[in-house]
Amino acid sequence: LKMSAMLETRELPAVFDGVKLAAVAAVLYVIVRCLNLKSPTAPPELIYQDSALARFLLKSCPLLTKEYIPPLIWGKSGHIQTALYGKMGRVRSPHPYGLRKYLTMPDGATATFDLFEPQSEHCIGEDVTMVICPGIANHSEKQYIRTFVDYAQKNGYRCAVLNHLGALPNIELTSPRMFTYGCTWEFGAMVNYIKKTYPQTQLVVVGFSLGGNIVCKYLGESQANQERVLCCVSVCQGYSALRAQETFMQWDQCRRFYNFLMADNMKKIILSHRQVLFGDNMKKPQSLSDADLSRLYTATSLMQIDDNVMRKFHGYSSLKEYYEEESCLHYLHRIYVPLLLVNAADDPLVHESLLSIPRALSEKRENVMHVLPLHGGHLGFFEGSVLFPEPLTWMDKLVVQYANAICQWEKTKSHCSDTEQAVSGQE
Questions:
Q1: How far apart are CA 366 and CA 215, in angstroms?
Q2: Counts of helices then strands in the chain (DSSP H, E)
Q3: E-only strand ranges, 105-259
Q4: Cβ-count burial 21-48 (b if 16+ within 10 Å, e if not)
Q5: Who has the most CB within 10 Å: 30, 61, 141, 279?
Q6: Rounded CA gap, 144 and 228, in Å?
Q7: Alpha-carbon distance 373 to 358, whole Å?
Q8: Where do the catalytic residues lie (predicted)?
Q9: pLDDT number for residue 29
């Protein structure tokens, strides 16, 4: 009996050690899977037509062909990249100084944007202004916008950043309307102000996420909107709200959870303007009622908010009509200036099926290039060695690098044209 008891006591610790090892192995497996540590690093996938412009860009923009290396521990997780962008914004983000401008819209709304002057001479010695449209419910005070603006200023760009209508907590609405998914009125007013105030400036149009939809729709709405525009860059947009609607209700990649969080944020913003939007105001949309306010309180998705509130600002009879008309999908083919469409393959908000839109466009149009890195999440694109990211992201550097290349391209074209005219005159 004693021998038997001794054997049992010696074997029990071994059994417990085995359970511990199995538990550790299971945790490590989950970490490796969740952090996507086995995923390789690689240069971004590029889809484009072989043209003189594309060849010039590949030569002038090293980031297009260089391997994008995110932080080793967490950088290959699109969820963590997205969460860090959303919660932290950027690392040690600067505080560029800008002047706030106010523009009265025809319907009584007050559009605001912040204007930042360049801090150095531009690479081609010209006056170039970046007109920037941030993501959903964002504005010039967001950290990722501040970081990008500061970097663009140091590269010689004037920057004008739209503050989405109703997004700034200290600016009251002056009409019963907020920003919506595809309304280009405020962005257009800002661009027109810049064109009028700086008659010599040329424009680089930049849109982030929802802002990417707005700027592409704006350019495609009218040929006149593309005058004095050198190029357009859209980062992390979804191209079609109608197609995205179904994918945003799915649980894979936690999209339904992201949908809920974004809807909750939108509810808070709308309710902060409750008196103007839902109060006794003769100017408010007749279809906006107290019942819509009640439904807003219980909404758990952006689609419910869009259906009950947002579409009614512009008189759309259905959510389908609103998404169909407000998406840039039907305007992309009308853009003739150089167009850079950037997405991340691991963006948890933009389903991979939506990426067929920029892919198909860039395969047909010489002015379009689609850039698709493996990692970056939604507006993350952090870089770094192991754990801590660098202040500047791959996205910040790519947008400025692309804009510089386009400016050089246009200057080269202009110089060649002047030389041809001079030779022709001598003959």
A1: 19
A2: 15, 9
A3: 110-116, 128-133, 158-163, 202-208, 229-235
A4: eeeeeeeeeeeeeebbeeeeeeebeebb
A5: 61
A6: 27
A7: 14
A8: 209 (charge relay system), 347 (charge relay system), 378 (charge relay system)
A9: 47
Residue positions annotated with a catalytic role: 209, 347, 378
What whole-number distance in Å separates Cα of residue 232 and Cα of residue 361?
15
The angle subtended at Cα 231 by Cα 229 and Cα 235, nearest 5°, is 130
The pLDDT of 12-24, averaged and rounded, is: 62
Cβ neighbours of residue 396 closer than 8 Å, sequence gap 6 or more: 147, 148, 151, 381
Q: What integer pLDDT is reported at residue 88 of this predicted model?
A: 72
Instruction: Tell me how far apart the alpha carbons of residues 88 and 305 are, in angstroms, rounded to a whole number.
Output: 26
DSSP secondary structure, 331-395, as one string: TGGG--S-EEEE--TT-SSS-GGGGHHHHHHHHH-TTEEEEE-S--TTTT---BSSSSBPSS-HH
pLDDT per residue as tens digits for the range 80-125: 999 988 877 787 889 999 999 999 999 999 999 999 999 999 999 9
The domains located in the chain, with CATH, are 45-240+332-415 (3.40.50.1820), 250-279+286-326 (no CATH)
User: What is the chain's mean pLDDT, rounded?
Assistant: 90
Inform me whether the pLDDT recorded for 190 exceeds 80.
yes
Map tokens 């150089």 to a residue.
338
pLDDT tens digits, 306-363: 999 999 999 999 999 999 999 999 999 999 999 999 999 999 999 999 999 999 999 9
**Residue type at position 324:** E
**DSSP letters spanning 255-284:** HHHHHHHHHHHHHHHHHHTHHHHHSS-TTS
Tell me the whole-structure pTM to 2 decimals.
0.91
Cα gap 341→359, rounded to integer Å = 9
Locus of tokens 């009950």: 308
Cα–Cα distance for residue pair 277/284, rounded to 1 Å: 7
Using DSSP bridges, classify how beta strands 128-133 and 339-342 pair: parallel, antiparallel or unpaired.
unpaired
Give the whole-angstrom CA distance, residue 310 versus residue 325. 13
Q: Residue 296 pLDDT > 70, yes or no?
A: yes
